[in-house]
Specification:
By secondary structure, the chain is an alpha/beta fold. The protein contains ten helices and eight strands. An eight-stranded mixed beta sheet has the order 1-2-4-3-5-6-7-8, sandwiched between helices.
Length: 272
């Protein structure tokens, strides 16, 4: 566990484990806006390291243990620039960039800005900007303004994750007598949702992503998944591969971590 210092009040928390085999890769994980390193480190990271691969998981500014100054705008450009800084400093061997949701957008843009990578994994990332996506972004912000992340999760998780996960975790949500507190507007998660979540540019130059790209899609995602859009954008990638997961929704690292780790291990054999 380490901290990458950016400024007097700004930095990135990260966990880096180099590969233990000469021919192995380093998986670099890009979180979703409300995620953190635990999404990768609970199951996926240990399984990848057991096979000799390295891992680098980090929290973007505004997430757990990654501080930011009060006047910092937590938008896409800052997040991508931070990723470039961190990866340039750590210099992981044979990196495979792995992004969940909007994290995949940040990973792709970091590669376009010159970060070397052997491959790119986009987990439930592919989407087109438009009225629907903007409405969803505004609705997520409104939910946390009214009732914080607790209300956000109670409202949206049934649409985001698979039936099995919902059945197993139902008792932890929608609790009787629950009171919801608004998320403070100066908090990291609020700023990430309001700034990066609502202003990021989804118009990627897909034809320029000229490296092996694995598109992982959870078919039980009822918020962001539009299959025709995923097909169209994946077909624009010069070297794309597909892995559809019928028993997963949007948050695959939490829903199907073992299966996702297997998919990532298989992809490493394609990029050597």
């Amino acid at each position: 566990m380490s901290d990458y210092k950016i400024g007097p009040q700004d930095g990135l928390y990260y966990e880096y484990h180099p590969p233990t085999k000469d021919t192995a890769c380093t998986y670099v994980f890009f979180n979703a806006l409300t995620g953190d390193t635990t999404n990768w480190e609970a199951v996926i990271g240990p399984k990848l390291r057991h096979s000799g691969h390295g891992t680098l998981a980090y929290n973007m500014r505004g997430q757990a243990n990654s501080p930011f100054s009060s006047d910092t705008v937590l938008d896409m450009d800052l997040i991508v620039d931070d990723a470039v800084r961190l990866l340039s400093a750590v210099a992981p061997a044979r990196p495979i960039l792995v992004g969940l949701s909007i994290g995949g957008l940040f990973a792709a843009r970091a590669w376009l800005k010159g970060i070397p990578a052997s491959g790119l994994v986009l987990i439930n990332t592919l989407r087109k900007d438009g009225a629907r996506l903007k409405w969803i972004g505004d609705a997520l912000v409104r939910a946390v303004e009214v009732g914080g992340l607790e209300l956000f999760r109670d409202l949206f998780l049934p649409l985001l994750v698979n039936e099995e996960w919902l059945a197993s975790n139902r008792d932890a949500f929608l609790k009787d007598g629950m009171t919801y507190d608004p998320l403070k507007t100066d908090s990291g998660h609020y700023k990430l949702l309001a700034e990066a979540g609502r202003t990021s540019d989804w118009n990627l130059p897909y034809e320029k992503l000229d490296l092996p790209v694995l598109v992982v899609t959870g078919l039980q995602d009822h918020v962001f998944l539009e299959r025709a859009v995923v097909d169209e954008l994946a077909n624009r990638l010069p070297k794309s591969m597909r892995s559809d997961m019928p028993n997963a929704g949007h948050l695959i690292p939490a829903e199907q971590p073992q299966a996702l780790a297997d998919v990532l291990l298989s992809f490493s054999k394609e990029v050597k």
